[in-house]
Design a protein that fits this description.
Elements (H helix, E strand, L loop, with lengths): L1 H12 L5 H8 L2 E6 L4 E3 L7 E7 L2 E6 L5 E7 L4 E2 L2 H6 L6 E4 L3 E7 H10 L1 H27 L2 H11 L1 H6 L2 H8 L3 H14 L1
Antiparallel strand pairs: 1-8, 2-7, 3-6, 3-8, 4-5, 4-7
């Protein structure tokens, strides 16, 4: 299973890792499985890990004052997920991360994260790239949510993430896109009728 982690890191940094680099990093992680609906991170508690999904799926969300969930990120195999605000700052988490199906992850704590960056120079680059991508993705999503109609947002999402459409519940995709589930159903029907 660590082959997928190695491929993910090598793809991100644009070069192969030596066995020593990779083995040193792996020694800082540990594998854990969570049942469907289990929380990897809970809002209000410090997020102590960043997670690499080996198998299964999960998502991060916030809950509003009415108890409604607002999806922020989805993670299938080969994705990283965390509450970076809490993980980096040590403050209580602002997001929840919940398993959508049984999920197996590699977990890296803050101390391991720091050791990886200090001991293995390529990992400082890897995590910098990961955080830059996350920041850019959030900015892009906010811009699109506020400037593009719902149908266009769904079309782009389905084009960029076809694998998500099969494994993420439609109501969560609607939440992620900032639209009502009924609106997403209508959009999907209209798109299907045009084919």
């Amino acid at each position: 299973m660590t082959a997928s982690l190695r491929a993910n890191i090598e793809h991100t940094v644009g070069r192969p890792l030596s066995d020593e680099e990779f083995n040193t990093f792996c020694a800082l992680t540990f594998e854990k499985s969570f049942d469907n609906k289990a929380h990897l991170v809970e809002e209000g508690k410090v997020c102590r890990y960043t997670y690499f999904v080996l198998q299964g799926s999960c998502y991060s969300y916030i809950t509003d004052e009415h108890g409604d969930k607002h999806a922020l990120q989805f993670a299938l195999e080969n994705y990283w997920i965390s509450d970076l605000y809490s993980f980096i700052s040590g403050q209580p988490a602002i997001y929840n991360i919940e398993a959508l199906e049984p999920v197996t992850v590699l977990m890296l704590n803050k101390e391991g994260f720091q050791k990886a960056c200090d001991l293995i120079p390529i990992f400082e680059r890897f995590f910098r790239i990961q955080m830059q991508r996350a920041y850019v993705a959030i900015q892009y999503r906010l811009a699109k949510t506020n400037s593009v109609d719902a149908e266009s947002r769904y079309e782009e999402f389905s084009h960029l993430h076809p694998d998500f459409l099969q494994r993420i519940p439609q109501y969560l995709i609607a939440s992620y896109l900032g639209i009502k589930p009924q609106s997403l159903s209508r959009i999907r029907k209209e798109m299907a009728s045009k084919k």
